[in-house]
Specification:
Number of helices of chain A: 7
Distance between the termini of chain A: 42 Å
Shape of chain A: globular
Helix content of chain A: 25-40%
Order of helices and strands of chain A: EHEHEHEHEHEEHEHEEEEE
Largest sheet of chain A: 5 strands, parallel
Oligomer: homodimer
Largest interface: A-B, 92 and 92 residues
Chain lengths: ~270, ~270
């Protein structure tokens, strides 16, 4: 990921974490403050501006939630013209976000007869992703082996999702679900819950976290048997427990969920 | 996770990220700087002291790599006596680390006739975990559905690990492997590679990342067919590609690995 000090610039694909300034890494803040151009979904640009401090004079290239490939190409073009470009994702840009999109464009370019972005330096800076933030709020549900699955079938066939859910449930993984509900496919969550219920008891705790790390955040714990009817939207991330995940209430009333590091039958 | 302003103190289970100051969140730095007691594995205490600045006057309770339950109880006792205790993990404390251990102790305490730590406030602060840091260094291998599995059979039976690897490979997940080699079980990685190879072609890219975010970090990409013979130790994290994960070399020589967000057969 080293680059030469040529006329071409830099694309930093950065993750701002869940949203609050306290969870955005200093490296990401530094890249945003030094940027000549900020590229991203408008609400994320608002968040990073609040979290990192508005870079004076930086151009803001806000876009809608779709059109990620165009956004990546635009960022690379800005850097090819000498810009220091921050491509902003919430959470971790490497998890269901812009880093893969930028890489896909670079891959195509590297194979082109005349690469367009050969001199552009590109880096990815990780951040805390939504499942981690949700887990931290409630305890440690991801404390043992886990899977991360997007329920959105915009970019993959639904049968692939079903196969993954069934495999993950059958092998007793904790399962974090991103994009649990789509406006156009309201039946997906109920179907997912059905698949999971084939390998989990109805009392299995499910963490339902909405807007964690942002104003108005809510974190609830519901039993798997009631998940299909739970209030869930696209800004919610779910963490479905494994057979060993436990839920308890402290004397102060705090509810915690965790998955012990030790699995039954362990040698020690 | 709210607490009352009583005489009892606070346990903050914090993750310092991969190790460099630039990847440790401001919230974690703040908790460490305000701590009266730092509890953790000695090398992590060294790292957080370097990353966050040594808290003047804080007591340092360094321990070996084992004995996590004792460490958690010690931290809770210090807080019950009024301390502001930071329990320090590298990466994310919620991923194969101290948060689950602290929760397990709290769970047992909540069920005790006379809870010992009822008044202690407990919080978990997430950090960037090793797989994310490794992924960012090389591109975006975790850009699509993925699993995180520890290959250590200290705390779980080896057959559980085999079942999870086979399920994850069969359902075409990207797979991040923590603790890939144990001193006492040198055959584990080769067996894991064999299980994965049943569902992946030998050229599948595997990211081999050691000490990412620390001095002397190395990140290599090897084909799955050569993984069993690769130099791997306990400070290494692996990311094994799915059937769609791609590897390419940029004109500048940088090697990148990514998993496209779009899966073959997607509706759009």
């Amino acid at each position: 990921m080293t680059g030469s000090a040529g006329p071409a610039g830099l694309v930093s694909v950065v993750g701002i974490g869940p949203g609050e300034a306290g969870t955005c890494t200093p490296d990401v803040v530094e890249r945003v403050r030094r940027a000549t151009d900020l590229v991203g979904y408008a609400p994320y640009l608002d968040m990073v501006t609040a979290a990192a401090g508005a870079p004076p004079g930086a151009a803001r290239h806000a876009s809608g939630n779709r059109g990620e490939a165009d956004r990546a190409r635009h960022a690379l073009d800005l850097a090819a013209a000498g810009g220091r470009v921050a491509v902003v994702s919430s959470g971790d840009p490497g998890v269901f976000a812009m880093a893969a999109v930028v890489m896909e464009q670079l891959d195509a370019d590297a194979g082109a007869p005349v690469p367009r972005w050969a001199a552009v330096e590109v880096e990815v800076l990780a951040g805390v992703t939504a499942a981690q933030a949700a887990a931290a709020r409630v305890g440690a549900p991801l404390g043992h082996d886990f899977c991360v699955v997007s329920l959105s079938d915009n970019l993959k066939p639904w049968p692939v999702i079903e196969r993954r859910l069934a495999a993950a449930a059958g092998a007793d993984f904790v399962i974090a679900l991103y994009n649990p509900v789509s406006r156009h496919r309201p039946w997906q969550l109920a179907r997912a819950a059905e698949l999971l219920a084939a390998n989990r008891i109805p009392s299995t705790p499910v963490v339902v976290a909405r807007d964690v790390g942002r104003p108005g955040a809510t974190v609830r714990v519901v039993p798997l048997g009631e998940l299909a009817g739970a209030q869930v939207d696209m800004r919610t991330v779910l963490v479905v427990g494994s057979s060993t995940t436990r839920c308890f209430t402290r004397p102060c009333g705090d509810v915690h969920v965790y998955t012990p590091r030790t699995y039954p039958g362990a040698p020690c």
